[in-house]
Design a protein that fits this description.
Blueprint: E1 18-22, E2 26-27, E3 30-31, E4 37-42, E5 47-48, E6 54-56, E7 62-68, E8 76-80, E9 89-95, E10 98-103, E11 114-122, E12 128-129, E13 137-143, E14 152-153, E15 160-162, E16 167-173, E17 181-184, E18 195-200, E19 204-209, E20 224-232, E21 237-239, E22 249-255, E23 259-260, E24 267-269, E25 275-281, E26 291-295, E27 306-312, E28 315-320, E29 335-343, E30 349-350, E31 371-377, E32 387-388, E33 395-397, E34 405-410, E35 417-420, E36 430-436, E37 439-444, E38 455-463, E39 471-472, E40 480-486, E41 490-491, E42 496-499, E43 505-511, E44 519-523, E45 530-536, E46 539-544, E47 560-569, E48 574-576, E49 583-589, E50 619-620, E51 623-624, E52 627-629, E53 654-656, H1 664-667, H2 708-711, H3 729-732, H4 767-798, H5 813-820
Parallel strand pairs: 6-13, 15-22, 24-31, 33-40, 42-49
Antiparallel strand pairs: 1-4, 2-3, 5-7, 7-10, 8-11, 9-10, 11-12, 11-13, 14-16, 16-19, 17-20, 18-19, 20-21, 20-22, 23-25, 25-28, 26-29, 27-28, 29-30, 29-31, 32-34, 34-37, 35-38, 36-37, 38-39, 38-40, 41-43, 43-46, 44-47, 45-46, 47-48, 47-49, 50-51, 52-53
Length: 837
């Protein structure tokens, strides 16, 4: 064994180490070693800075340890009193000079007040004693939680408010009766910046939004929760939700500000017009059920004479039933139709003439008098002999020849020709049979479609031999709708693993689902075993009834059975999937004793897998397959260091928020070990062979063992790079942007302590210094190139030659502007109420 005591094996080795080679073994002057052999890997010795920072037993969520030569791939700590990693705390190596420790839910930094010392540190070269003379190095002073740390907050998702209006009440215990500070997940700031706390009591706080600000900015993700992360009642910020995940408590549900786009030029004829699209923002469906009032009033005729269907947050479809008119009384002159109020959930808001809602806009155009969405006209006079009557009662699929198209009217003859709005041609796209003077039947020909996409099929005119010119039908040249054409329904095949009874929800993806009228048939699942929980254009959610099973035949451990969708009906008749054989949408596995799961997780039924067992590897909201990103730069506990905005992107560490098997509905339950397929080594990960380990051993972008080239086989890791993608998401394009706005600055009352480093290390350690050094190298290189090129050009011109390089000249002002400047992020003003990305 070789030993070296005073000198160093290697001066300034890199953090990931350098190989030490033995090049010669000489006996009597003769080298006995054929080739150089690697005998050791030399890594730099870590150092830890002493700190007397004050933290609290449970009130403090995180604290920072500073030092040098920390290894992001391997750094282990031993404390006095003992703390167990991943049980008492989660360790995040933020950089080679900074460690961030996060307390797990239910644990303490110490069982009683006293010093917290670091005894040993291991960065890959074995456990190194830290200041052994005093039994360890002081890294924090742990104090007992104060009374003001006993803050609790109640989740109140039923508290509702629009983005730009209203007050919000926060209910809980332990608040300060005089002054409180709050930390929200979206960076919302108080004390008049975005809101003011107008009422303080020990059990309730009332927040009033500042004019011009918003509770939440990202409208596309609303309705959504307003999440309170922490409260400072006088003794520092105390997390009010699980401490190791950015969840907090939902203190309100925020809805998008309602906007209705004015459309006075839209013409509605009394009975010939069958539908009206209302365009805007902030419309909701499902549990919230957007409600509107009109002038003249038509809402009292919904749903008997008129239907109102919210398609999405920007479109509402209003349909007039066959045989009805837009107004009960006869229209003799043009009448504007106005939307007076809209209620998308929090309550009705009055609309202004410009389409904004009263209270969310300072508009004075038609203030509070409603917004015109159409102008209603009397029907135009029709040809007395030949007519086509409007019909919205029949629905047909684009191609499925389940039903013929029936058209009713007056004066029909055998040789008549119908003109459709989409150019359908007789005897090419369809064949027509005239049943009598008032009825005809159209049959679709093979490989033809009624419409290229779903929508109303309109007859524009009709040509009969007795008339010289085609006879227009309907009013205003818009024709008459004779049928509703629905998209052909499509089911996406998949084998999502579910359990016979433990899994309560099954999601079926596809296309062409009708929101208000879809029926689906499964096999072998009994029809009474489930019901449709919700239907969206691209997704159907089925929920299992109590006492039933997805597959009764699955009862033996290790057995499984596929579930097929065999039929689907979206209002135009039953369509057989895959010729009647069906499409596989799930694989049912048996409920086993050691596979039992429940929905005891606090965040069950939110549509996201929260116990870490999800096999999906996609971003969902702030979740990553059930993992939650740590808040970058918003460490809100008392005495915390501020680290970052940060070097490594938004979410630098991931942790499951609930125990395995406690979010059964959203996750499907844990897979039985006998059924689990363990991948030892392949490169099926979509980010394999990129030089960074991307499986569960690091960022979890891919499943264990699927990035063999970069990580090594399962159980025999062999990382090839210091920083994986989980450390360089911004550079590699894998960044996850938060689902909401960012107010950019910390709380107006929160001060961040500076991070002290040795003076000789401040400019040489950390990723920032590496970046600066790299930029300096680029500058030097470019300077050398330009100087060399300039010298060469000068020499050529001095010797009588012409310049060997043709420089581009800007001939137009626009070209000159492009050469001078190119706008980027730095040109965008950053304010507390503006989010740019």
């Amino acid at each position: 064994m070789l030993a070296l005591w005073a000198p160093r094996w290697l001066e300034n080795p890199p953090v990931d180490g350098a190989t030490l080679y033995l090049v010669a073994i000489k006996i009597k002057g003769v080298n006995q070693l054929g080739e150089a052999e690697d005998v050791a890997k030399i890594i730099p010795t870590p150092t830890v800075l002493e700190s007397a920072q004050v933290i609290y037993e449970k009130a403090t969520r995180q604290f920072v340890i500073n030092g040098t030569n920390f290894n992001p791939k391997r750094t282990d700590l031993i404390f006095d009193p003992p703390l167990m990693r991943n049980q008492d705390y989660i360790l995040n190596v933020a950089s080679k000079t900074m460690l961030v420790l996060t307390r797990t839910t239910g644990s303490k930094w110490r069982a009683d007040p006293g010093p917290l010392k670091l005894r040993r540190i291991d960065t890959g070269g074995g456990q190194l004693r830290v200041n052994s003379d005093t039994g360890g190095l002081l890294v924090a002073e742990v104090q007992a939680d104060l009374d003001v740390h006993g803050v609790t907050v109640e989740s109140t998702p039923n508290e509702r408010s629009y983005q730009s209006t209203g007050r919000i009440s926060v209910i809980g215990t332990g608040f300060n009766a005089a002054d409180n500070h709050m930390r929200f997940a979206n960076g919302l700031r108080g004390h008049g910046v975005n809101y003011t706390t107008v009422e303080h009591s020990t059990d309730m706080l009332t927040l009033e939004l500042k004019s011009g600000s918003k509770w939440r900015h990202n409208s596309e993700n609303l309705p959504g929760p307003l999440i309170l992360l922490a409260v400072d009642a006088g003794g520092g910020f105390v997390a009010v939700g699980p401490t190791e995940a950015k969840k907090g408590r939902t203190v309100a549900t925020i809805f998008e500000d309602v906007v209705v786009v004015p459309n006075p030029g839209k013409v509605l004829f009394s009975s010939h017009s069958h539908e009206l699209w209302i365009v805007g923002k902030g419309f909701t469906r499902g549990d919230y059920k957007t409600q509107l009032t009109f002038d003249p009033p038509i809402e009292d005729r919904i749903p008997n004479d008129i239907t109102l269907l919210v398609y999405n947050r920007t479109h509402i479809k209003v349909t007039l039933f066959e045989g009805e008119t837009w107004l009960n009384n006869k229209i003799n002159q043009p009448i504007p139709l106005r939307v007076m109020t809209v209620n998308s959930g929090p309550g009705p808001v009055t609309m202004n003439g410009d389409g904004s809602s009263y209270g969310s806009s300072k508009s004075v155009q038609g203030f509070g008098k409603g917004v015109v969405i159409a102008t209603m006209y009397p029907d135009e006079k029709q040809h007395s002999g030949v007519q086509v009557f409007r019909s919205t009662a029949q629905s047909l699929y684009q191609t499925a020849a389940l039903k013929d198209l029936k058209i009713t009217g007056k004066g029909f003859v055998n040789d008549m020709i119908l003109t459709f709005d989409n150019g359908l041609t007789k005897n090419v796209d369809y064949k027509m049979t005239v049943d009598d003077k008032e009825h005809c039947t159209l049959s679709l020909k093979p490989n033809r479609k009624w419409r290229v996409e779903g929508g109303a099929l309109r007859v524009m005119s009709i040509k009969v031999p007795a008339e010289d010119a085609p006879i227009a039908v309907g009013s205003g040249g818009e024709g008459v709708a004779v049928a509703e054409i629905l998209d052909d329904p499509f089911i996406t095949a998949g084998e999502r693993i579910i359990f016979a009874t433990h899994t309560k929800q099954l999601i079926i993806n596809g296309y062409g689902f009708v929101l208000d009228d879809t029926r689906i048939t499964l096999t072998p699942t009994l029809p009474d075993a489930y019901y449709l929980d919700s239907v969206e254009p691209y997704r159907i959610v089925l929920r299992l009834r109590d006492g039933f099973s997805w597959a009764d035949d699955v009862y033996l451990a290790g057995s499984s059975q596929d579930i097929f969708v065999t039929k689907i009906d979206t209002r135009a008749g039953e369509v057989l999937m895959n010729g009647g054989d069906g499409v596989v949408v799930a694989k049912v596995e048996a409920d086993m004793d050691d596979n039992n799961c429940d929905d005891s997780c606090e965040y069950a039924f939110d549509g996201l897998c929260d116990d870490g067992t999800s096999k999906e590897r996609d971003w969902y909201d702030d979740d990553y397959g059930g993992f939650y990103g740590y808040d970058d730069g918003q460490y809100y506990d008392y005495g915390y260091y501020y680290y970052g905005d940060d070097y490594y992107g938004d979410d630098t560490f991931l942790a499951a928020i609930c125990d395995v098997g406690t979010d059964c509905t959203d996750c499907g339950g844990p897979t039985h070990p006998a059924q689990a397929t363990v991948v030892e080594c392949d490169n099926s990960c979509q980010w394999s062979n990129d030089g960074f380990c991307d499986d569960d051993r690091t960022s979890g972008l891919c499943s264990m063992g699927t990035d063999c080239h970069d990580c090594g086989p399962t159980g025999n890791s062999n990382f090839t790079s210091l920083f994986g993608d989980d450390w360089e998401w911004n550079a590699d394009g894998d960044t996850f942007w938060d689902d909401d706005d960012n107010y950019w600055a910390g709380d107006d009352e929160l001060a961040y302590a500076p991070i002290e480093q040795p003076s000789d290390k401040r400019m040489n350690d950390g990723v920032g210094s590496l970046f600066i050094n790299a930029m300096q190298s680029v500058v030097y290189f470019v300077g050398i190139v330009f100087c060399s090129g300039g010298a060469f050009v000068g020499y050529k011109m001095f010797t009588g030659g012409s310049a060997p390089i043709a420089f581009p000249l800007a001939d137009e002002p626009g070209d000159m502007e492009m050469l001078i400047t190119k706008p980027g992020k730095a040109n965008v003003p950053i304010t507390p109420d503006v989010f740019t990305s």
